[in-house]
Write a structure and sequence with these properties.
The chain is an alpha/beta fold and 570 residues long. The chain contains 19 helices and 19 strands. It folds into three domains: 179 residues, 3-Layer(aba) Sandwich (Rossmann fold); 129 residues, TPP-binding domain (Rossmann fold, 3-Layer(aba) Sandwich); 190 residues, 3-Layer(aba) Sandwich (Rossmann fold). The strands form four sheets. Strands 4-3-5-6-8-7 form a six-stranded parallel sheet, sandwiched between helices. The radius of gyration is 26 Å and the shape is globular.
Length: 570
């Protein structure tokens, strides 16, 4: 599309002839957005408002000129999670913008997730002039450090700044978001009235120059006094930020060379048949007797068996992403950077003498566990459980080059149990493991990758984030199929301490929380194609259509599900 100068703001304001005015707000907004486009922003997510009006018009014009893709969402929380999803696999910061007041506060959950999963985002919040909140002005809160605890950096553009300052703040924010740690960066821009210049020609927004966001972290030399790992080591690979994922293949190559079992959580990548243990959640306790050490990469801990594994080992070397912890059970004897993994593993390779039958003993136990899982799942006469649904979705996605987004809580754990070798790419929000914003995050992933995505989600999380189904008219829907496991309440609590018999008088009221909602109708209320299924065969048939929309699976009730899981552990 040819690049032309920005159209003039209309001379009609609120239906009346406007007076020719100048606006510092338009100048600051233009400088900030222009610089972000120059740096390479590809997607912007906007929630409508008054104070961010100049930014909103700029983003709409930028999309019209083909410089970026604009997504408009009326719910700020869902907007923020959409931005998270757009950046999650691409690694390119998405611009997220809203007006002043509680609108900005609703970004906080997604900002926290982005911080702990190291997803880059530029959070641009419009604000009223400095001191407005203290003076009791309408729709104001203290925004300048709103996300201070969960943002890599916070910058302010004051009303007295000029366009050079605004452009520089945007540049520094982008650099911080794309640094070795990666994550969300907050820019709070104070805009004074008049917000919109009535008769101003802005310079044309320029097409972005290529910008390389890859930055190598400083790699310290590996320590010379590496601990002995003994002859029965085990490797655990957890959730690793996208920009450091090259370390996974390095770790797998090391494991194959020395012959040690690898317990891979779902988002770590495809389970390598040479060393990976598929059903580790079911058989680790039985086979890990005599373990001498653990090597872990990234954040992990979906199953309590991993805690017991780490506590059994004499030595635990943990590799953590820059700026994040990776020792959830306080068992690590040494914590190093992921960037150091390759030289450290190379150094360890020459010192390891692994027991010859160690890896084979894990493979044998894994095969027995897999046969037991198949037998139990095929013999059940109840409605499909979350495990059945996870198996169907994983198998179908693998055969059709689709992505799987697994919701936190029960869904990601079902995927952990059912994931096989050479499975599909699995994505999840494991930074803070919240159940909010999952539909929007999955939509963002699907849109950014332009790849069909299956979101596996429970009924409570679905209801919690159902506003993520709401598309503004004129925007194409994401290539996303939402598969809801509906067991009418919070199933995961049944397997935790509060599910014990002594707490049953209060369980349903404060944990089970049955909603008794028709989720097909809920989805259709948003104008989304939705169907209900009751069997695995019906689910498979609906998955095969690859139609964006919602599939609601009437699942086994929570008691049946709890009994099934108990059978798997036996």
């Amino acid at each position: 599309m040819p690049k032309s100068t920005l159209s003039r703001f209309s001379k009609q304001v609120a239906g009346r002839d406007a007076v020719v005015t100048e606006s510092a707000a338009t100048s600051l907004a233009h400088a900030c957005v222009q610089r972000l486009i120059d740096l390479g922003v590809k997607h912007a997510v906007l929630s409508p408002g008054s104070r961010n009006a100049p930014i909103s018009i700029l983003l709409a014009q930028a999309e019209q000129q083909g410089l970026l893709t604009l997504h408009v969402r009326i719910d700020e929380r869902e907007a923020a999670f959409l931005a998270l999803g757009l950046s999650k696999l691409s690694g390119i910061p998405t611009l997220l913008c809203c007006t002043s007041g509680t609108a900005a506060a609703n970004f906080a959950p997604a900002v926290a997730e982005a911080f702990y999963s190291q997803v880059p985002m530029i959070v641009l919040t419009a604000d009223r002039p400095e001191g407005a909140a203290q003076r009791g002005a309408s729709q104001t809160i203290r925004q300048d450090q709103l996300y201070a605890a969960n943002a890599l950096a916070s910058f302010t553009i004051g009303t007295g700044a000029d366009h050079h300052v605004a452009a520089d703040r945007a540049r520094v924010a982008w650099s911080a978001a794309c640094g070795p740690q990666r994550g969300p960066v907050h820019v709070n821009i104070h805009l004074a009235e008049p917000l919109l210049a009535s008769h101003v020609e802005w310079p044309a927004l320029r097409e972005a120059e290529p910008f390389d966001i890859s930055q190598a972290a400083d790699i310290d030399s590996p320590p010379l006094d590496l601990p002995a790992l003994g002859n029965r080591p085990v490797m655990v690979i957890g959730d690793i930020p996208q920009h450091e994922r090259n370390v996974v293949q390095c770790a797998l190559d090391f494991a194959v060379t020395v012959g040690i079992p690898v317990l891979m959580e779902p988002t770590a990548g495809s389970r390598d048949a040479r060393v990976a243990v598929r059903r580790h959640a079911l058989m680790t306790d039985a086979v890990s007797e005599g373990i001498t050490s653990v090597i872990s990469l990234g954040r992990f801990g979906l199953g309590r068996h991993l805690r017991r594994l780490c506590e059994r080992a004499n030595t635990h070397i943990a590799f953590a992403a820059e700026g994040l912890g990776a020792d959830p059970f306080a068992t690590a004897t040494m914590v190093l950077k992921l960037a150091q993994a390759e030289p450290v593993l190379t150094a360890l390779q020459s010192t390891l003498e692994v027991e010859p039958t160690w890896l084979q003993s894990w493979h044998t136990a894994d095969e027995r566990a897999s046969m037991h899982v198949q037998s139990v799942l095929e013999s059940t006469t109840a409605a499909p459980s979350g495990l059945h649904v996870a198996a169907e979705v994983l198998e179908f996605a693998a055969h059709h080059n689709a992505l799987v987004f697994a919701a936190a809580s029960r869904s990601i754990r079902d995927v952990d149990v059912m994931a096989d070798f050479a499975g599909p790419t699995v994505v999840a929000n494991l930074g803070v493991n919240g159940i909010d914003g999952l539909i929007s995050t999955a939509a963002g992933v699907a849109l950014s990758q332009q790849q069909h995505t299956y979101l596996l989600i429970g009924d409570i999380a679905f209801l919690h984030g159902s506003n993520g189904l709401l598309n503004v008219a004129g925007e194409a829907p994401a290539p996303l199929t939402v598969v809801v496991v509906d067991d009418n309440g919070g199933a995961i609590f049944s397997d935790l301490e509060q599910g014990a018999e002594e707490f049953q008088p209060w369980f349903e009221r404060v944990f089970g929380t049955p909603h008794n909602m028709n989720l097909v109708n809920v989805a259709r209320g948003y104008g989304v194609n939705a169907v209900g299924v009751e069997t695995r065969a019906e689910l498979a048939a609906q998955l095969a259509t690859r139609t964006p929309g919602v599939i609601v699976v009437k699942a086994a009730n929570r008691e049946q599900s709890r009994n099934l899981r108990a059978q798997l552990q036996s």
